[in-house]
Amino acid sequence: MANAISADKTSYSNQHKLRLAYFVTHPIQYQAPMLRRIAEEPDIDLKVLFSSDISVRGKGYTDPGFGVQVKWDVPLLEGYQYEFLPVLRNADQLGFAKPLNYGIKRVLRQQKFDAVWLHGYSTLTHLRALRVSHSLGIPALIRSDSTLFDRPRSKSKLFLKSIFFSLLRPCVSGVLSVGEANSAYWRHHLGEDIPVFPCNYAVDNLFFQHECEVASESREEFRKSLGLDASRPVILFAAKLISRKRCTDLIEAFLRLSNSDSQAPRPYLLIVGDGEERSALEEQAKRAKPGDIHFLGFQNQSELPRYYNLCDVFVLASVDEPWGLAINEVMNAARAVIVSDEVGCQKNLVRDGVNGGVVRARDPQSLADSLRAVLASEQTWKAMGAESLKIVQNFTFDQNVVGLRQALRQLVPGFAENPAPLL
Known about the structure:
This protein is of the alpha/beta class. The protein has helices at residues 32-39, 104-110, 124-135, 155-168, 180-190, 205-216, 219-225, 247-258, 278-285, 304-310, 325-331, 346-349, 364-374, 378-392, 397-411, and strands spanning 18-24, 44-50, 61-62, 69-70, 81-84, 87-89, 100-101, 115-119, 140-143, 174-177, 196-198, 234-238, 268-272, 293-297, 313-316, 336-340, 356-359.
C-alpha cells in the first residue's frame, strides 16, 4: 500500500498550507517556470532543496554533453523558496555521489514537511531522502522521465534492477508520470498497484509563443544573415551533438533527400548545438552541396525561439530519449515535428501524418521518407504546424499543478481538494 501520513498529523483545511519539499540535483532551466507556477498555489508551501549549485555559479559550468561553458540566460532561482543542501564534498560534475550531501533528516524534521517530492532516484542524496521520509512517515512522490526503451542491459543488470526496485517500492507513496511511456515504466518496475498521477512534461508555453511571435517580425533579416534563400524550406536540429541524439542519421537522411530529384525546392539543414561528435558530423556533412548544411553552435535558451520560428520542420531522431522537451518548445512555434520511436514524447505529442511523423530509430531511410512527406508542400507543413500548436496547448504547468494536487489529496489526509482563494 502507498505510504500515508500518520493519523495523528494535523488535518488540513483551506487555512493551512501543506509543506512540500522538492528534491532536485541542481537548478534546471526547464523546471524553473514550473516551480514558480507551483509556488503560486495559496495552500502549498513549496521549498526546493538542491543538491548542487553547479548551474548557477558565477562563470557558468562546462556541460559534459555540449562540451562548452554554459551560463543560462534565463532566471533559474526566482519566484520560489529554495535552499542548497550542505555538502561534505562538492564537485564540478554531477553523479551518484557528486556532491555528497548531508543534513536531510534535520531539514525534513525541523522544517516540518508534510510531503516529499523527488526528481529522479539515481543519486545517493535522493535515495537517502526517500529512506528518511519513509522513516518519518512522510509520503514521498517520485517524478522522472524514464522509459522501457532505454539502453540495452544484460540479464544480470536487469535482475539487479528488479531487486533495486523491490527495495525502493516500500518507500514510494506514488509517482508523477510525465507521459504514457513513463507510466508504463513505473507500472513495470513498481507494480500495477503503484498510484500514478499525471504530470506531463511541459515548458513555458506562453514564453515560447510570445518569443516566436516576436522573432517572426525579423525572420527575413535573420534568414538573410544566415545566407538562406527564402524559397527553400528549413529543417532544424537543436540538441547536443552526442551519439544518442543521432544527428548522423539526420544528416544521412538529408543527403538522400536533397540528392533526389523529387524534392524541389531543396531544403536547408540547420544544426544548432555542440558536443563531442561535431567534427565527425561536419566531415559527414561535406557530402552535401555547398551551403546546404549549417552548423550554428550552442545557442542559449533565449536564442532558440529565433530558430524555431525560422524552421519549417524540426527533427529529433534520438535513441534512449526519455522525453525531448525541445519538441514542446518548437510546437509552440506552430511547426511540424519528426521524432524517432525511441523519443518518449512521441506517444503524447506527435501524431504521425497529423502534426509530423514518427520514424524508426537508427533508420535514415525512414527519416528521409518522413521528411519528404512533410515537405511535400508549404500547405502540408503549415497545416501540420497548426496541429502541433493545438496539441501542445494541453501540456501546461497548470496541468502539472492539477496532477500534483491529485497526488497530495490522495496521500495527505485532509488536504484541500481546491486551493484557498487568493487574498
